[in-house]
Write a structure and sequence with these properties.
With 172 residues, the protein is of the alpha+beta class. It is built from five helices and seven strands. Strand 6 and strand 7 form a beta hairpin. The protein is globular, with a radius of gyration of 15 Å.
Amino acid sequence: MSTTYRDATPADGSNLDAMARAIWLETFAGSAPDSDLQAYVAGAYGPDGKLLRDLADPANRFRLAVDGDRILGYAKLVQPFLDPSLVDAGALQLSQLYVVADRHGDGIGPALLDWTIATARAESAPALFLTVWEDNARALRFYQRRGFVHVGDYAFQTGTQVDRDLIMRLAL
C-alpha cells in the first residue's frame, strides 16, 4: 500500500463525496434517530450537497491522501464559520479531517493535520480552530496530543437533533 498526498480537484468530487458520506455515517451511526442522520446526509452529500459546493469554491482547500484511485482521507481548510468572538482575526479552521477506518494508525491523519498546520502558518494565521463531537473520543485524543485546547462549544445540527461539538484552538 502506497499513500500519496495531493490537492483535490473537481474531478475528485464523486469519489470524495462517497468516501466522506460513508465515514460520516459510520462515525455517527446510532448518535441520532435515523431520520435525523438521513436529513443531515441529504444536505451534506450528493450532487447538490455542501461538500461538492465547497470543493468547487477556491476559498476552501482540500488535501487528499490517496492510494491509486482510492481516497484514503482528506483535510478541508476553510475560513472560520465559528462565533467571531471566539476566533482570532486571521485564523483558519480545519472543517473536516476524515480517514477511512481500515487505514487508521497508518499516519494519514497526522500527515493531513501537518499539512493543515503548515498551510495555516504559511498564511500567517495566528491560530487554527476546529470542532469535534464531544463523544468522538478518538478524535479528541488526537487533537489534544497535537496541542489543541477546548475554548468553547458549538451547536451542531443533525436533522432536528442538536449535538455539542467542542471548539478547539491551536496557537500557531
